[in-house]
Amino acid sequence: MTTNPRPTAVPSLQSVRRISRWMVAACWAILLLLPLALLAYWATASDAVLAGHASLPSGAVQGPLRPWQRLAAGAVMGVPLALLLMGVWQARRCFEMFAQGQVFTAQATHLLRRFAGWVAWAALAALLASAITSVLLTLHHPPGMRHLAISVGSDHVFTLFFAGLVWLMAAVIGQGQSMAEENEGFV
């Protein structure tokens, strides 16, 4: 005897609109707070913690970091964050459309694809930024004591996977929109 699987509950448009308004607020919080957090982190974190952030062993940074090193490394690490925030900006615009009840539109699909693209670029930039940061943090060391650390972590892989997933979902939604428009032409 087979049983039919339970139908999944589909949220109402009102629920989607309400959640989307919350997501717009969350996007704004991310857009405003993450740059401030990056500045505070690079201004106050210990040298050993910053070394770990650049995939260096904790003892790789010898002596206190110079202010220009913190500033330069923070700026380099700000590049992936800026790319990620561009993606969050696209997501915010998409959620604003959802909050207005504009769900299955070509513009929403386009914004989802742009979000995925910016997130993918942010993940790739994070790989490069970490390597550059490792050099900046050890630049004042004598020759032979400088480091170039290249690392690929599960966070980078997952972020790229997530970006690809969102891009594919947007492509499928776009294909569905094209099919729906084509079917309307026959009616």
Can you describe what's shown?
The chain starts with 12 loop residues before the first helix and ends with a helix. α3 packs antiparallel against α4 (106-137). It is built from 5 helices and no strands. 25% of the residues are buried. The protein has one domain (13-186). The protein is an all-alpha fold.
Characteristics:
187 residues; mainly alpha; 5 helices
What does this entry show, briefly?
With 187 residues, the chain is mostly helical. Helix content is 73%, strand content 0%.
Write the layout of secondary structure elements.
Blueprint: H1 13-44, H2 47-53, H3 67-99, H4 106-137, H5 154-186
Helix pairs in contact: 1-3, 3-4, 4-5
Q: What Rg do the Cα atoms give?
A: 22 Å
**Structural class label:** mainly alpha
Order of helices and strands: HHHHH
End-to-end C-alpha gap: 41 Å
**Percent helix range:** over 70%
Q: Give the averaged pLDDT, no decimals.
A: 87
Low-confidence segments, given as residue ranges, are none
The proportion of residues in beta strands is under 5%
Number of strands: 0
How many structural domains in the coordinates? 1
Backbone shape:
elongated
Main sheet attributes: strand count, strand direction, barrel closure = none
Tally of helical runs: 5
